[in-house]
Design a protein that fits this description.
5-stranded antiparallel β-sheet, mainly beta, 10-stranded antiparallel β-sheet
Length: about 725
């Protein structure tokens, strides 16, 4: 029985407004394919519209003792020939399922196969780059040696008069006749010819590794770059009467563990290509080997042919691969994109079937409706080849390990989808569970849930709940906890129909948590100079684990008062400006109380508070004492002391006889304390009486002054 690998997911959390006196209800809703990227699938799939369905029946065809099934073809008698690695064996699977070893090469890999109209089968190998021929009687012989390391791809012309072999690492195509004579038919500046397809019009199409090019080559060997993909590898090609389909396979990050060989563009790490690798071995040029020059010596400009179709404007992102449809006029459009490696494809009627790695997914693409569905998935790494048999069925060849499967146009009887884990952040109560599904008679959709307080489900989680069957009345029957997971079970009594779940919604309510005032800033008049110190600005931050809307009550208390005095109630902002002109002087504290009452019933509402550091409100001006201590020449010598009862002094200036103000500074040059001493001289003065006023300002905006009256006597005339 085939077991299906976990796929991948993200969930979408939507917040909806509170209703009545209920707390803020949150919603976990899954309705798109992307919502299931981290879900675990068992015999179930998700289509491009986000609908969950039963998978198609995928049954093992035969046991193949190999690591990889690289390719397979069917002969006229219904026998399957299977190319494998890493022991270089060619297997034959008879219509009755009997498996025999048809041939074992001394190469490690038989990489590709092609069937000829005369009943012959051709095989390409690596790392010695040979072409083998299996005649209609099943006899195998070495037909041709390319002198290249790998024969990645093979195709035969419509009449069976020539076999074309795509090789690497020099990016060449060899043409070989049935009698074993061949030569280099076309040479590129690419590293590998990974895919070949013969079009109904007799044109040869080639996909490369290095620059992601698709070539069109006529029967005379004249090449033309038909398309340049955003990705580096064109792994698979399908040529039809009206278009060429090119599938890319740039290395991607693996979503689930899987063993992989390395190859063009890859490494043995988690983002490897799945083709094998090795060093070209020295090979003797035998009769029929690659000799003679290429017939396209003028290829130096082919890679940059300006007539080649460019990639569509919408470029795939990192880790994404695509299938492009290249029309007869050279225009290209993207028909498929996914975070997978596209390893093979075939066209059946009006649909494309696409095999991928690293999660072994098989996709079906309906171009007419633009619908993309995941048909099935393996329990191991890659679908490496897809072949349509004479009876219309599809055979899949897989890797890690090598297996053969037959895809049936029937659905499995039962499948499950286990969601990613919802992290509600805090302990939560689970509510209504609703879903929309198409479930014909004989089919069913049920949902179960479980919960826990560790992120990874383990034996500390609750058991799965009873299966919920009513999509209009179901509830998530799991204990209150931080984490939740659901499991959808799809079932059908007949293999011809599947139920489809299109939307699932789960509502939940976080257990109410008290808000927290995380910071509270008040002015420190000893540290800052305010533009308007009579209007003090307060700022604070607050958080609520439930994401409730918060309001704030503000209180002040002067040292010596027993009670807090309310400044504002239900304040909505996180800042406040307090006009202190009607408030007595003193040292105060501010208290901010945050409340979540707007999003909770009164009995469940909670508060959190914070009290500030002390701050000063002062309306008392500095006291200023001033005196004249002498006359030096025609200048008065002044000494003064200013003292403030609560805050530091910030500036001082004097004026004589009501004239202009002149700034003066403390003896130490700094305004840095509540008491400052000043010593200064006036300008030169004429004899007469003077009044000098010294005003001093403090950090609270208060100004105090002192004055002194003195006389400057006329100096006696000099003899």
């Amino acid at each position: 029985m085939v077991r299906f690998l976990p796929t991948a997911a993200a969930f979408l959390i939507l917040l909806i407004p509170s209703v009545g006196h209920a707390g803020k209800v949150k919603v976990w809703n899954h309705h798109a394919a992307s919502d299931y990227e981290k879900a675990r699938f068992e015999h179930a799939v998700v289509n491009s519209e986000g609908a969950l369905q039963l998978a198609r029946q995928l049954k093992p065809l035969a046991g193949i003792d190999a690591a990889h099934v690289w390719d397979c073809v069917e002969d006229k008698d219904g026998n399957l020939y299977v190319a494998t690695g890493n022991e270089g064996k060619l297997f034959k699977v008879a219509p009755d399922g009997k498996v025999t070893t048809a041939y074992t090469t001394d190469d490690g890999e038989i990489l590709c196969l092609a069937a000829s109209p005369d009943g012959s089968i051709y095989a390409g190998t690596g790392p010695s780059g040979r072409v083998l021929r299996i005649d209609p009687k099943g006899e195998v012989r070495l037909m041709y040696e390319t002198a290249d390391a790998y024969v990645w791809s093979l195709t035969v012309d419509a009449k069976g008069e020539a076999v074309y072999a795509g090789t690497g690492p020099k990016g060449r195509i060899h043409r070989v006749t049935p009698d074993g004579k061949g030569s280099i038919f076309y040479a590129t500046k690419q590293d590998h010819i990974l895919s070949l397809a013969m079009g109904p019009d007799g044109m040869l199409y080639a996909g490369t590794d290095k620059s992601g090019l698709v070539y069109r080559i006529d029967e005379k060997g004249k090449g033309f770059v038909l398309f340049s993909a955003p990705q580096a590898e064109i792994r698979t090609l399908v040529a039809t009467a009206d278009a060429v389909y090119a599938g890319t396979s740039a290395p991607t990050r693996r979503r689930t563990p899987s063993v992989s060989s390395t190859g063009p563009g890859g490494s043995s790490s988690g983002s490897a290509s799945v083709l094998p690798t090795g060093k070209p071995e020295a090979t003797k040029v035998a009769e029929g080997s690659a000799t003679g020059p290429t017939t396209t010596a003028d290829t130096k400009d082919k890679e940059t042919n300006k007539s080649a179709s460019a990639a569509p404007p919408s470029q795939p992102g990192r880790d994404e691969n695509s299938i492009f449809r290249i029309a007869a006029d050279g225009t290209a459009r993207e028909v498929f994109r996914e975070k997978v490696m596209i390893l093979c494809m075939t066209r059946l009627n009006d649909r494309l079937f696409v095999g991928t790695g690293m999660d072994g997914q098989l996709f079906e693409i309906n171009e007419a409706t633009k619908e993309r569905s995941e048909v099935t998935r393996l329990d191991h790494g890659q679908i490496l080849c897809i072949r349509k048999r004479h009876d219309g069925s599809l055979v899949l060849g897989a890797g890690d390990p090598g297996k053969l499967y037959v895809l049936h146009d029937k659905y499995v009887a039962k499948g499950t989808i286990t969601s990613d884990v919802l992290d509600a952040k805090i302990i939560s109560k689970w509510g209504a569970l609703r879903w929309k599904a198409d479930a014909a008679a004989g089919t069913s959709v049920t949902v179960a849930v479980r919960s826990g307080n560790v992120a990874e489900p383990d034996d500390t989680w609750s058991d799965w709940s009873a299966e919920q069957t009513d999509p209009k009345q179901a509830t998530a029957s799991a204990p209150a906890a931080r984490f939740l997971q659901y499991r959808v079970t799809l079932a059908s009594e007949t293999a011809d129909v599947t139920p489809a779940l299109k939307d699932l919604t789960l509502r939940y309510l976080n257990t109410n948590q008290a808000p927290e005032v995380t910071s509270l800033d008040v002015p420190n008049l000893d540290a800052v100079t305010l533009e308007n110190p009579k209007k003090l600005k307060f700022k604070w931050n607050a958080v609520d684990a439930n994401e409730d809307e918060l309001t704030y009550n503000l209180y002040v208390r002067k040292d010596g008062w027993k009670n807090w005095v309310l400044l504002e109630e239900d304040w909505e902002k996180k800042e406040y400006e307090w006009d202190t002109t009607t408030t007595p002087s003193g040292e105060y504290h501010l208290k901010v109380v945050a409340s979540d009452r707007r999003d909770n019933p009164d009995e469940d509402a909670l508060t959190g508070e914070r009290v500030s550091k002390p701050f000063v409100v002062s309306h008392t001006p500095p006291a200023v004492n001033i005196k004249v201590v002498g006359i030096e020449g025609d200048q008065a010598l002044i000494e003064a002391t200013a003292t403030d009862p609560m805050v530091r002094l910030t500036s001082a200036s004097f004026a004589l006889n009501g004239k202009k103000w002149t700034n003066v500074f403390p003896v130490d040059g700094l305004f840095d304390s509540k008491t400052e001493t000043f010593k200064f001289k006036t300008d030169a003065l004429k004899p007469g009486s003077y009044v000098l006023v010294l005003k001093v300002k403090d950090a609270a905006g208060n100004t105090g002054s002192g004055d002194v009256v003195f006389t400057v006597e006329a100096r006696a005339a000099q003899k």
